[in-house]
Fold:
Amino acid sequence: MKDKIKALKDHLMTGVSYMIPAVVVGGIFIALSLATGTASDKGMVITNEFMKNINFIGVAGFTMMIPILAGFIAYSIAGKPALIPGMIGGYLANTPLEGSGVKAGFLGALILGLAAGFLVKWIKTWKVPTMLRPVMPIFVIPILSSMIIGLGYIYLLASPISWMMTGLTDTLTGMTDSSLVLLAIILGCMIAFDMGGPINKVACMFAFGLMAEGVYTVMGIIAIAICTPPLGMGLATLLNKRKYSEQERESGKAALAMGMIGITEGAIPFAAGDPVRVLPSIMLGSATGAVIGALAKVTDHAPHGGPIVLPVVGERLWYVVAIIVGTLVTALMVNLLKKNIPSDTESTP
Structure:
């Protein structure tokens, strides 16, 4: 059993190691461009034409991030024939489906990457006629496995995700008249849980809807919770370098930059590589910061988060305090849970 768990972790870390350069490029470019923008009721607005192009490049890096993660998880399991099916699964998971708008995010990409890898590994065991063997890895396997993974996601996984999103939205709406602290805990955990995935998006859209009604306290909670996962993981890599590989430490620097401009996805490489330790840590950190924001009645008048929106935040001192405390909770908890890595650990697979 331990061998199977280790092998699974190795597959995940392979995907993470190939994803990190895309995270770094995308995150740094987006951070640079947004840092020159201004906060408005429509989010961060970039007016400089050159910085718009820098942002465009950064978005390209971020767009590739999740497909690369899923693709190389599959590649680690079953080799080259699994690469494209895995990437297609990752792309589908990170792209809203037409009509429903369903998006599974990075957790969906992890599942589809693993599914693609093991599916291809199984197909490779099939006994086929000798004349078909040369075209199996370049034609039959990629087409067949991509179709199975793609249609399986669209017809089997997308609908339950959509139902879940609707149910969560209805639940949150019913809580607006109850305890703001309890709502803050739930929203903080939702924001950190899948970092840009469906649960995160439900929390964000819920806050955006209340902003349209003139309620800005919930967006204040969200703005704090959005930035603590990447800031916390970035800080964690600085506090104890022995627990992180060289690549993870580099990713930590990018995570700090992304946290400053409210990009939760900066924590994805860490969560993908070690979800058991990282997810509870970032959820607790986000929830802690969110509760402080709720108690202090912090408001945010822009549909964005992180220190970058400070000019449009009410109760700014408490906003900063909440971010700092949530960041520290995340960093200290994850470093308490993680073990030191061997000194000879390779930074690439």
Observations:
- The longest strand covers residues 38-40.
- The first helix runs from residue 2 to 35.
- The two ends are 22 Å apart (CA to CA).
